[in-house]
Amino acid sequence: MYSDQPSINPKFDDSDQYELVAVATRKLVIKAPKSIDIENVYSANSTLKFDEIIDVRTPGEYEVDHLPNAVNLPVLTNEQRHFVGIKYNQNKFEGKHHGAMLITKNISNILEYQLFNDSNEQQLPSTKKKYLIYCQRGGQRSISLAFILTQIGYEEIFILQNGYSSYRKYVQKMISELSKQLKWRIIGTLTGCGKTDLLNYMEQHCQIQTLDLGNRRNSQRSV
């Protein structure tokens, strides 16, 4: 974005020359994406609702876990992230250089095939929609996409501070706090006596919340 007034007042009779100088001498104003912490995203008192949550991590990271309702638009593939990591450990500048080359190519594909639809202009996303973008922790991958979207003209681009790592810590914190409000009853008996069947019956017919740790861990020790 540029300021409205040129920094000098060139004196040219030719209008084309005047326009060229005026554009070249305007002060450049660079917009930055907004930043938000995880507490403000999931706080009960928060009035901020996102139209879309974008996870720019690799498909492998996304598959392990992700924010609820997040879509995966990776700026690096699993293989690319592994390659960049090796290069970075050998030489930080070389790693960042390769990372930038790959990320910019992938963001181009995201813009062309996933955010934009060239065959139907009516499907272009609204610049007023609120987007939350996050990566794993450091912010390099999320800021790459968020910065470009902001410069294009998207007005409500937010980056999650400390990325997925902050969400994981938030979930652990909430589990610790909410679990104190629950009344726990542990059913512990010998293997094969029907604990899972009992828990299923209690959940279906008694409206009791259950957690079958033994079944979740493939009948290994749960407590």
Automatic annotation (TrEMBL):
GO terms for molecular function: tRNA 2-selenouridine synthase activity. It holds the Pfam family Rhodanese. Coiled coil: none annotated. Residues 53-176 form the Rhodanese domain. It comes from the Eukaryota. One of its GO terms (biological process) is tRNA wobble uridine modification. InterPro entries: Rhodanese-like_dom, Rhodanese-like_dom_sf, SelU. This is Rhodanese domain-containing protein.
